Amino acid sequence: MYNILICDDERDIVSALKIFLSDTNYTLFEAYTGKEALSVISRNDIHLILMDIMMPEMDGISAMVKIREQSNVPVILLTAKSEDTDKILGLNIGADDYITKPFNPVEVSARVKSQLRRYMQLGSGTIKQQCFRIGGIELDDKAKSVTLDGEPVPLTPTEYDIMKLLMENPDQVFS
Fold first, then answer.
1. How many whole angstroms separate alpha carbon 9 and alpha carbon 112?
2. How many domains does the structure of the chain reveal?
């Protein structure tokens, strides 16, 4: 499952991109300003970002500079700015690709798949597993639940974190 952030101040474009990218392998997050995008990124493991340049509060270029300070996640700029100087600026400050509006949804989908493939195959990206099963114990990180032979096991948050660490790292010893 890949986590994709769509960031554009035009809600219709975000909705359209969500339709174009509705795929069982994608979990889609949305943001409408650069600041919102940074907030989503800080709370989630994002594998690719589609970002507009011209947005209120914080534009896409400023947001991308902040993103590049901490991550090499692929960023595709999706913008109405089609001048060569705009494209060169976007690519020089860290964008992995640049698509101008209006865009072809099939092309956007192909570029998303291409960037995800490159990012994941070169070892930069990882997908966090959300369900772990060892013997009769099953941990569902999305639901934050643990079961033993199908029966729920009540755990404190600390106990849950320890259980998750151990199940994520089988055959390893921790002090």
1. 20
2. 2
